[in-house]
Amino acid sequence: MKIALETLGCKLNQAETELVARQCLEAGHRLVASIDEADVYILNTCTVTHIADAKARHLLRLAHRRNADTRLVATGCYAQRAPQELARIDGVNLVVGNQEKPNLLRLLYEAGYLDKSASSTSSNGDDTTNDEPRFRTRAFLKIQDGCNNFCSYCIVPLVRGREKSLPAAQLVDEVRRCVSSGAKEVVLTGTEIGSYNYDGINLRRLLEKILTETNIIRLRLSSLQPQEISPELIDLWRDPRLCPHFHLPLQSGSDTVLKRMKRRYTITQYEKSLSLIRAIVPDAAITTDIITGFPGETDEEFEESYDFCQKTGFARIHVFPYSPRPGTEAARMPPHSANSARTQRNQNLGALARKCDQNYRQRFLGRTMTVLWERQSSAGLWSGRTGNYIKVYTRSNEDLRNKILPAKLLKVYGDGVMGEVRLAKKT
User: How do residues 101-130 score in pLDDT, each as one tens digit?
Assistant: First the structure.
Protein backbone atom coordinates (compact mmCIF):
# COMPACT_ATOMS: atom_id res chain seq x y z
CA MET A 1 0.00 0.00 0.00
CA LYS A 2 1.12 3.58 -0.60
CA ILE A 3 1.99 5.69 2.44
CA ALA A 4 2.84 9.41 2.53
CA LEU A 5 4.73 10.76 5.54
CA GLU A 6 5.17 14.38 6.62
CA THR A 7 6.97 15.83 9.64
CA LEU A 8 6.64 19.09 11.54
CA GLY A 9 9.00 20.32 14.22
CA CYS A 10 12.27 19.11 15.63
CA LYS A 11 14.93 16.61 14.59
CA LEU A 12 13.56 14.18 17.17
CA ASN A 13 10.30 14.11 15.22
CA GLN A 14 12.31 13.55 12.03
CA ALA A 15 14.09 10.60 13.65
CA GLU A 16 10.78 9.08 14.72
CA THR A 17 9.28 9.59 11.26
CA GLU A 18 12.26 7.86 9.69
CA LEU A 19 11.71 4.91 12.04
CA VAL A 20 8.08 4.68 10.91
CA ALA A 21 9.24 4.92 7.29
CA ARG A 22 11.65 2.03 7.72
CA GLN A 23 8.94 -0.04 9.42
CA CYS A 24 6.63 0.61 6.46
CA LEU A 25 9.30 -0.38 3.95
CA GLU A 26 10.22 -3.54 5.86
CA ALA A 27 6.53 -4.50 5.91
CA GLY A 28 6.48 -4.25 2.12
CA HIS A 29 4.59 -0.97 1.75
CA ARG A 30 5.66 1.88 -0.51
CA LEU A 31 6.49 5.44 0.47
CA VAL A 32 5.08 8.03 -1.90
CA ALA A 33 5.80 11.73 -2.14
CA SER A 34 2.32 12.94 -3.02
CA ILE A 35 -0.88 12.80 -1.01
CA ASP A 36 -2.69 12.42 -4.35
CA GLU A 37 -1.60 8.77 -4.68
CA ALA A 38 -1.43 7.80 -1.00
CA ASP A 39 -3.65 5.20 0.64
CA VAL A 40 -2.54 6.51 4.06
CA TYR A 41 -1.18 9.94 5.00
CA ILE A 42 0.69 10.19 8.33
CA LEU A 43 1.46 13.62 9.80
CA ASN A 44 3.94 13.74 12.70
CA THR A 45 2.90 16.94 14.49
CA CYS A 46 4.61 19.53 16.68
CA THR A 47 2.96 21.64 19.37
CA VAL A 48 5.79 23.86 20.60
CA THR A 49 3.93 26.99 19.40
CA HIS A 50 0.40 27.88 18.34
CA ILE A 51 1.80 28.35 14.83
CA ALA A 52 2.89 24.69 14.76
CA ASP A 53 -0.61 23.68 15.84
CA ALA A 54 -2.18 25.77 13.08
CA LYS A 55 0.16 24.33 10.47
CA ALA A 56 -0.78 20.77 11.48
CA ARG A 57 -4.50 21.53 11.16
CA HIS A 58 -3.90 23.18 7.78
CA LEU A 59 -1.93 20.22 6.40
CA LEU A 60 -4.56 17.71 7.49
CA ARG A 61 -7.40 19.73 5.95
CA LEU A 62 -5.37 20.22 2.77
CA ALA A 63 -4.68 16.49 2.54
CA HIS A 64 -8.39 15.72 2.89
CA ARG A 65 -9.30 18.24 0.16
CA ARG A 66 -6.70 16.83 -2.22
CA ASN A 67 -7.56 13.17 -1.66
CA ALA A 68 -10.75 12.43 0.23
CA ASP A 69 -10.13 8.67 -0.05
CA THR A 70 -6.85 8.79 1.89
CA ARG A 71 -6.82 7.64 5.50
CA LEU A 72 -5.48 10.56 7.56
CA VAL A 73 -3.38 9.79 10.64
CA ALA A 74 -2.15 12.44 13.10
CA THR A 75 0.60 11.54 15.55
CA GLY A 76 3.26 13.38 17.56
CA CYS A 77 3.22 16.09 20.21
CA TYR A 78 0.00 17.87 19.18
CA ALA A 79 -1.71 14.48 19.08
CA GLN A 80 -0.42 13.83 22.58
CA ARG A 81 -1.50 17.24 23.95
CA ALA A 82 -4.94 17.63 22.37
CA PRO A 83 -6.09 14.49 20.54
CA GLN A 84 -9.72 15.61 20.57
CA GLU A 85 -8.89 18.78 18.59
CA LEU A 86 -7.28 16.78 15.81
CA ALA A 87 -9.98 14.08 15.84
CA ARG A 88 -12.61 16.74 15.05
CA ILE A 89 -10.88 17.74 11.79
CA ASP A 90 -12.72 16.51 8.71
CA GLY A 91 -11.16 13.35 7.30
CA VAL A 92 -8.91 12.48 10.25
CA ASN A 93 -9.30 8.76 10.91
CA LEU A 94 -6.75 8.07 13.64
CA VAL A 95 -4.95 10.13 16.30
CA VAL A 96 -1.92 8.54 17.95
CA GLY A 97 0.03 10.18 20.78
CA ASN A 98 3.76 9.96 21.37
CA GLN A 99 3.50 7.02 23.73
CA GLU A 100 1.83 4.88 21.08
CA LYS A 101 3.89 6.18 18.15
CA PRO A 102 6.25 3.12 18.18
CA ASN A 103 3.15 0.94 17.67
CA LEU A 104 1.75 3.02 14.82
CA LEU A 105 2.04 0.36 12.15
CA ARG A 106 0.27 -2.22 14.34
CA LEU A 107 -2.52 0.28 15.09
CA LEU A 108 -2.99 0.91 11.36
CA TYR A 109 -3.38 -2.82 10.74
CA GLU A 110 -5.81 -3.20 13.65
CA ALA A 111 -7.92 -0.31 12.35
CA GLY A 112 -8.02 -1.89 8.90
CA TYR A 113 -6.25 1.05 7.24
CA LEU A 114 -3.39 -1.12 5.99
CA ASP A 115 -3.88 -4.41 4.20
CA LYS A 116 -1.42 -7.12 5.27
CA SER A 117 -2.18 -9.15 2.17
CA ALA A 118 -0.74 -6.32 0.09
CA SER A 119 2.59 -6.35 1.94
CA SER A 120 3.94 -9.84 1.44
CA THR A 121 7.27 -8.72 0.00
CA SER A 122 9.74 -6.14 1.22
CA SER A 123 10.46 -3.04 -0.83
CA ASN A 124 13.88 -2.87 -2.44
CA GLY A 125 14.08 0.90 -2.05
CA ASP A 126 13.67 1.68 -5.76
CA ASP A 127 9.92 2.16 -5.37
CA THR A 128 10.22 4.71 -2.58
CA THR A 129 9.86 8.45 -2.75
CA ASN A 130 12.57 10.95 -3.42
CA ASP A 131 12.72 11.25 0.39
CA GLU A 132 14.29 7.78 0.57
CA PRO A 133 17.80 8.91 -0.49
CA ARG A 134 17.77 11.20 2.56
CA PHE A 135 17.80 8.09 4.75
CA ARG A 136 21.02 7.05 3.03
CA THR A 137 22.84 10.38 3.19
CA ARG A 138 21.91 11.70 6.64
CA ALA A 139 20.19 9.50 9.21
CA PHE A 140 18.49 10.79 12.38
CA LEU A 141 18.96 8.60 15.44
CA LYS A 142 16.97 9.09 18.65
CA ILE A 143 19.16 8.50 21.70
CA GLN A 144 16.80 9.72 24.43
CA ASP A 145 13.39 11.26 25.01
CA GLY A 146 11.72 13.46 27.60
CA CYS A 147 12.85 16.41 29.72
CA ASN A 148 13.04 17.06 33.46
CA ASN A 149 13.73 20.80 33.27
CA PHE A 150 10.21 22.28 33.09
CA CYS A 151 11.16 25.71 31.75
CA SER A 152 8.22 27.99 32.45
CA TYR A 153 7.23 28.46 28.78
CA CYS A 154 7.80 24.92 27.47
CA ILE A 155 5.14 22.33 26.70
CA VAL A 156 7.66 19.60 25.84
CA PRO A 157 7.89 17.89 29.29
CA LEU A 158 4.10 17.65 29.30
CA VAL A 159 3.91 15.89 25.92
CA ARG A 160 7.20 13.94 26.02
CA GLY A 161 7.36 12.96 29.69
CA ARG A 162 10.40 12.51 31.91
CA GLU A 163 13.90 11.78 30.62
CA LYS A 164 14.69 8.27 29.46
CA SER A 165 17.76 7.13 27.51
CA LEU A 166 18.19 4.24 25.10
CA PRO A 167 20.87 1.57 25.71
CA ALA A 168 24.32 2.53 24.43
CA ALA A 169 24.89 -0.88 22.85
CA GLN A 170 21.63 -0.56 20.93
CA LEU A 171 22.63 2.90 19.67
CA VAL A 172 26.05 1.69 18.52
CA ASP A 173 24.31 -1.10 16.61
CA GLU A 174 21.92 1.44 15.09
CA VAL A 175 24.82 3.59 13.89
CA ARG A 176 26.39 0.48 12.33
CA ARG A 177 23.08 -0.25 10.60
CA CYS A 178 22.97 3.31 9.24
CA VAL A 179 26.51 2.95 7.93
CA SER A 180 25.76 -0.41 6.29
CA SER A 181 22.71 1.10 4.57
CA GLY A 182 24.90 3.82 3.10
CA ALA A 183 24.51 6.78 5.48
CA LYS A 184 27.50 9.10 5.52
CA GLU A 185 26.22 11.16 8.46
CA VAL A 186 24.25 10.30 11.59
CA VAL A 187 22.52 13.02 13.63
CA LEU A 188 22.05 12.13 17.30
CA THR A 189 18.82 13.64 18.53
CA GLY A 190 16.40 13.66 21.45
CA THR A 191 14.57 16.10 23.66
CA GLU A 192 17.57 16.72 25.94
CA ILE A 193 20.54 14.76 24.57
CA GLY A 194 23.03 16.45 26.90
CA SER A 195 21.37 14.61 29.79
CA TYR A 196 21.85 11.22 28.13
CA ASN A 197 22.68 8.57 30.73
CA TYR A 198 22.19 4.84 30.48
CA ASP A 199 23.75 2.54 33.09
CA GLY A 200 26.34 5.19 33.94
CA ILE A 201 27.25 5.92 30.30
CA ASN A 202 26.84 9.65 29.72
CA LEU A 203 26.85 11.56 26.43
CA ARG A 204 30.63 11.88 26.31
CA ARG A 205 31.15 8.15 26.77
CA LEU A 206 28.43 7.38 24.22
CA LEU A 207 30.19 9.56 21.65
CA GLU A 208 33.50 7.83 22.41
CA LYS A 209 31.88 4.42 21.89
CA ILE A 210 30.32 5.43 18.57
CA LEU A 211 33.56 6.94 17.29
CA THR A 212 35.60 3.94 18.43
CA GLU A 213 33.24 1.12 17.51
CA THR A 214 31.73 2.30 14.19
CA ASN A 215 32.97 3.55 10.83
CA ILE A 216 30.61 6.52 10.64
CA ILE A 217 32.15 9.31 8.57
CA ARG A 218 30.23 12.18 10.13
CA LEU A 219 28.53 12.41 13.52
CA ARG A 220 26.40 15.45 14.36
CA LEU A 221 24.55 16.47 17.55
CA SER A 222 21.15 18.09 17.26
CA SER A 223 21.22 20.38 20.32
CA LEU A 224 22.93 20.91 23.66
CA GLN A 225 22.15 23.15 26.63
CA PRO A 226 24.78 25.78 27.53
CA GLN A 227 25.32 24.31 31.02
CA GLU A 228 26.16 20.92 29.46
CA ILE A 229 29.28 22.20 27.71
CA SER A 230 32.45 21.03 29.45
CA PRO A 231 36.15 20.84 28.47
CA GLU A 232 35.98 17.04 28.57
CA LEU A 233 33.03 16.97 26.16
CA ILE A 234 34.35 19.56 23.70
CA ASP A 235 37.76 17.88 23.63
CA LEU A 236 36.13 15.07 21.62
CA TRP A 237 35.74 17.48 18.70
CA ARG A 238 39.44 17.07 18.00
CA ASP A 239 38.18 14.03 16.07
CA PRO A 240 37.25 15.47 12.64
CA ARG A 241 34.31 13.06 12.32
CA LEU A 242 32.38 15.13 14.87
CA CYS A 243 30.70 17.92 12.94
CA PRO A 244 31.71 21.43 14.09
CA HIS A 245 28.14 22.54 14.65
CA PHE A 246 26.63 23.35 18.06
CA HIS A 247 23.02 24.36 18.56
CA LEU A 248 22.83 26.08 21.96
CA PRO A 249 19.37 27.52 22.73
CA LEU A 250 19.75 30.96 24.32
CA GLN A 251 16.04 31.96 24.50
CA SER A 252 16.93 35.40 25.91
CA GLY A 253 20.02 37.55 26.29
CA SER A 254 18.68 39.02 29.55
CA ASP A 255 19.40 37.38 32.89
CA THR A 256 16.13 38.60 34.37
CA VAL A 257 14.12 37.05 31.53
CA LEU A 258 16.12 33.82 31.79
CA LYS A 259 15.22 33.68 35.48
CA ARG A 260 11.49 34.04 34.70
CA MET A 261 11.89 31.38 32.02
CA LYS A 262 13.49 29.06 34.63
CA ARG A 263 16.48 28.46 32.41
CA ARG A 264 19.46 26.90 34.17
CA TYR A 265 22.25 29.26 33.17
CA THR A 266 23.17 32.92 33.15
CA ILE A 267 24.52 35.02 30.30
CA THR A 268 27.99 34.83 31.86
CA GLN A 269 27.81 31.03 31.87
CA TYR A 270 26.57 31.02 28.29
CA GLU A 271 29.52 33.19 27.24
CA LYS A 272 31.94 30.77 28.92
CA SER A 273 30.46 27.89 26.93
CA LEU A 274 30.89 29.86 23.69
CA SER A 275 34.51 30.65 24.54
CA LEU A 276 35.26 27.02 25.31
CA ILE A 277 33.82 25.84 21.99
CA ARG A 278 35.59 28.47 19.93
CA ALA A 279 38.94 27.81 21.60
CA ILE A 280 38.89 24.17 20.48
CA VAL A 281 36.64 24.33 17.37
CA PRO A 282 37.33 27.78 15.86
CA ASP A 283 35.28 27.25 12.67
CA ALA A 284 32.26 25.89 14.53
CA ALA A 285 28.80 27.06 13.60
CA ILE A 286 27.00 28.09 16.78
CA THR A 287 23.28 28.39 16.21
CA THR A 288 20.59 29.34 18.70
CA ASP A 289 16.91 29.96 19.47
CA ILE A 290 15.50 33.23 20.78
CA ILE A 291 12.00 33.92 22.10
CA THR A 292 10.76 37.47 21.68
CA GLY A 293 7.89 38.98 23.64
CA PHE A 294 8.14 36.67 26.65
CA PRO A 295 5.65 37.76 29.37
CA GLY A 296 6.98 40.78 31.21
CA GLU A 297 9.79 41.46 28.69
CA THR A 298 10.62 45.17 28.84
CA ASP A 299 12.24 47.31 26.17
CA GLU A 300 15.47 47.21 28.19
CA GLU A 301 15.44 43.42 28.46
CA PHE A 302 14.83 43.08 24.73
CA GLU A 303 17.75 45.43 24.01
CA GLU A 304 19.96 43.21 26.18
CA SER A 305 18.96 40.23 24.03
CA TYR A 306 19.49 42.12 20.79
CA ASP A 307 22.90 43.45 21.84
CA PHE A 308 24.06 40.03 23.04
CA CYS A 309 23.10 38.39 19.73
CA GLN A 310 24.74 41.19 17.78
CA LYS A 311 28.09 40.86 19.54
CA THR A 312 28.09 37.05 19.71
CA GLY A 313 28.12 36.41 15.97
CA PHE A 314 25.83 33.40 15.80
CA ALA A 315 25.86 31.43 12.56
CA ARG A 316 22.07 31.29 12.66
CA ILE A 317 19.35 32.55 14.99
CA HIS A 318 15.91 30.95 15.01
CA VAL A 319 13.56 33.70 16.20
CA PHE A 320 10.24 32.70 17.77
CA PRO A 321 7.52 35.06 19.00
CA TYR A 322 6.39 33.89 22.42
CA SER A 323 3.46 31.49 22.20
CA PRO A 324 1.51 30.66 25.40
CA ARG A 325 1.16 26.90 25.79
CA PRO A 326 -1.69 25.43 27.85
CA GLY A 327 -0.58 24.08 31.21
CA THR A 328 2.73 25.94 31.39
CA GLU A 329 3.61 28.43 34.10
CA ALA A 330 4.31 31.25 31.65
CA ALA A 331 0.81 30.96 30.17
CA ARG A 332 -0.49 32.38 33.46
CA MET A 333 1.93 35.33 33.45
CA PRO A 334 0.51 38.72 32.37
CA PRO A 335 2.17 40.34 29.31
CA HIS A 336 3.71 43.79 29.93
CA SER A 337 3.92 44.98 26.34
CA ALA A 338 1.45 45.64 23.54
CA ASN A 339 1.11 43.32 20.56
CA SER A 340 2.60 45.99 18.30
CA ALA A 341 5.74 46.18 20.44
CA ARG A 342 6.15 42.38 20.43
CA THR A 343 5.72 42.29 16.67
CA GLN A 344 8.35 45.00 16.21
CA ARG A 345 10.82 43.15 18.43
CA ASN A 346 10.34 40.00 16.42
CA GLN A 347 10.95 41.87 13.18
CA ASN A 348 14.07 43.61 14.53
CA LEU A 349 15.62 40.40 15.78
CA GLY A 350 14.62 38.62 12.58
CA ALA A 351 16.51 41.21 10.53
CA LEU A 352 19.57 40.71 12.76
CA ALA A 353 19.28 36.93 12.33
CA ARG A 354 19.40 37.27 8.54
CA LYS A 355 22.47 39.50 8.79
CA CYS A 356 24.26 37.06 11.13
CA ASP A 357 23.47 34.16 8.80
CA GLN A 358 24.91 35.98 5.79
CA ASN A 359 27.98 37.19 7.70
CA TYR A 360 28.81 33.67 8.81
CA ARG A 361 28.58 32.27 5.29
CA GLN A 362 30.73 35.09 3.92
CA ARG A 363 33.52 34.17 6.36
CA PHE A 364 34.16 30.97 4.43
CA LEU A 365 34.09 32.29 0.86
CA GLY A 366 37.25 31.36 -0.98
CA ARG A 367 37.85 28.29 1.19
CA THR A 368 37.62 24.67 0.08
CA MET A 369 35.46 22.56 2.40
CA THR A 370 34.10 19.03 2.29
CA VAL A 371 30.40 18.77 1.46
CA LEU A 372 28.00 15.86 1.83
CA TRP A 373 25.92 16.17 -1.33
CA GLU A 374 22.32 15.20 -0.66
CA ARG A 375 19.89 15.97 -3.43
CA GLN A 376 19.28 17.49 -6.83
CA SER A 377 16.82 20.36 -6.48
CA SER A 378 16.58 21.06 -10.21
CA ALA A 379 18.27 19.93 -13.40
CA GLY A 380 21.99 19.99 -12.69
CA LEU A 381 21.70 21.93 -9.40
CA TRP A 382 22.84 19.93 -6.37
CA SER A 383 22.79 20.88 -2.70
CA GLY A 384 24.57 19.56 0.37
CA ARG A 385 26.03 20.58 3.73
CA THR A 386 29.49 21.25 5.08
CA GLY A 387 30.42 19.87 8.48
CA ASN A 388 29.58 23.24 10.01
CA TYR A 389 26.17 23.15 8.35
CA ILE A 390 26.62 25.68 5.57
CA LYS A 391 24.31 24.80 2.71
CA VAL A 392 26.26 24.58 -0.54
CA TYR A 393 24.90 24.51 -4.08
CA THR A 394 26.76 23.48 -7.20
CA ARG A 395 25.99 22.77 -10.83
CA SER A 396 27.12 19.39 -12.08
CA ASN A 397 26.09 16.77 -14.60
CA GLU A 398 27.63 14.11 -12.39
CA ASP A 399 25.52 12.15 -9.88
CA LEU A 400 26.72 13.66 -6.59
CA ARG A 401 24.13 12.09 -4.28
CA ASN A 402 25.59 10.72 -1.05
CA LYS A 403 29.15 11.65 -1.94
CA ILE A 404 31.47 13.65 0.30
CA LEU A 405 33.54 15.87 -1.98
CA PRO A 406 35.56 19.06 -1.55
CA ALA A 407 34.09 22.25 -2.95
CA LYS A 408 35.46 25.76 -3.18
CA LEU A 409 32.91 28.23 -1.77
CA LEU A 410 32.51 31.05 -4.29
CA LYS A 411 29.63 33.38 -3.38
CA VAL A 412 26.55 33.76 -1.22
CA TYR A 413 23.62 32.13 -2.99
CA GLY A 414 20.05 32.08 -1.66
CA ASP A 415 20.03 30.39 1.74
CA GLY A 416 23.57 29.07 1.26
CA VAL A 417 26.61 29.54 -0.94
CA MET A 418 27.48 28.54 -4.48
CA GLY A 419 30.44 26.21 -4.70
CA GLU A 420 32.65 24.52 -7.25
CA VAL A 421 33.11 20.79 -6.76
CA ARG A 422 36.58 19.34 -6.99
CA LEU A 423 35.96 15.96 -8.65
CA ALA A 424 38.71 13.37 -8.59
CA LYS A 425 40.35 12.96 -11.98
CA LYS A 426 39.47 9.74 -13.79
CA THR A 427 42.40 7.52 -14.70
Answer: 999 999 999 999 988 765 544 444 444 444
Q: Which amino acid is at 46?
A: C
304 and 377 co-located in one domain? no
Residue 427 pLDDT level (bands cut at 50, 70, 90): very low
Residue-averaged pLDDT of the chain: 92
Domain that holds residue 60: 2-118
Has this prediction a pTM greater than 0.70?
yes
User: CA distances (Å), 389 to each of 11, 210, 392, 416, in order?
Assistant: 14, 21, 9, 10
Sheet holding 316-321, edge to edge: 245-247, 285-292, 316-321
pLDDT per residue as tens digits for the range 200-258: 999 999 999 999 999 999 999 999 999 999 999 999 999 999 999 999 999 999 999 99
Quote the Cα angle for 233-263-279, to 5°.
Answer: 30
| 24: CATH | 3.40.50.12160
Q: Are residues 82 and 147 in the same domain?
A: no
Scored b (16 or more CB within 10 A) or e, 261-296 reads bebebebeebeebbebbeeebeebbbbbebbbbbbe
Domains of the chain: total = 3
* C-alpha distance from residue 390 to each of 261, 278, 414 (Å): 31, 17, 12
Length of the chain (residues): 427
DSSP 35: G
Query: How far apart, in whole angstroms, are the C-alpha atoms of residue 427 and residue 424?
Result: 9
Contacts of 224 (CB under 8 A, 6+ apart): 193, 194, 246, 247, 248
What single-letter amino acid sits at 31?
L
